[in-house]
Amino acid sequence: MSLSNAAETRATPTTPDNLKNTDFDVFAFTGDGTAFMGKVDTEFGHDGVNIVYNNGKWDYKNASDLRYWPTGALDFYAFNPGTVSEDMMMNYMWEASGTVQKISYTCIDEYGANTGHANYDVMYAMAKGQTKDMNNGIVKFNFKHILSQVVFKAKTQYDNMQVDINMIKIHNVKMGGFFTLPATADGTGSWSDPADLPSEVSGLGKFTVVKDVNITVKSNTIATDISTTTPMLNRPQELTAWKVSETATKSKLEADNAKQCYLEIACKIRQSGAYLLGSASEYKTIYVPFGDTWEQGKRHIYTLIFGGGYTDQGEAVLNPIQFDAETTGWVNAAKDVNV
């Protein structure tokens, strides 16, 4: 049997060029749900037949896993990456049967955790109703991302301003959950929260965009890059911005209790050389309400327009930051490689 691959594009996004550096685990089921490759897996784990890129082609990692086409049709499901480092075993798991296929994923705060490990650009692929007479017996996989990619840039509000950024974090985001594969290959699948936790408290945490840096922003027309080459990979979700103007959520602590989202930014702000925030020797922290909807398989690009923010008590510091936001597709990257 041959397997072939066409992948979409991590905190190294997977592209056609580096796809061969990944691997994936495959399941195949007959029409009645019998496992033909892998097993009927109803508990989260790391099962399946491992496929790797070796000697210029996609191949079975273990020769004993080799399968030949049966007479009937098969439904194929693949999970990428297929190899999981020991410290990520509980963060990334999957299960597959003939009727339900799910991925359990919990993001890590890569820069904040100091683990030296990165999030996975988790992808899935499916090819249902395949027979040996289709595509010359080659199973074509089109991998799709289950996470959202989030990056930042920055500009100043005025042309005589300069901002020096040391750290940016996003607070009160869902770190993970369960992704259920769609019924058909052209569907989108869906995210859900762990059943034993109510939605509003399921694994909320904070993500570090950048830390221990000194990024200087001094143009109000050309955006300065913050993290476009080091994107965050996040669970798709709707973020509710800190409602700093409402009495009930005036302070940062009240925003935390209400599960409202905001940026924490350590920076210095100067105008015509004079410090408006911080000093030559000290960064100051401001907070900025942040809300949007992160979509599966999309790259979200935010340009911070620096003027100021709020204190942890919700008092304005200079002119609060505004945003320009855009969303781009995470491009499909066709790749056909015969095993």
Automatic annotation (TrEMBL):
Domain of life the protein comes from: Bacteria
Cross-referenced CDD domains: BF2867_like_N (cd13120)
Pfam families, A to Z: Mfa_like_1
Protein name, per record: Fimbrillin family protein
Source organism of this protein record: Phocaeicola plebeius
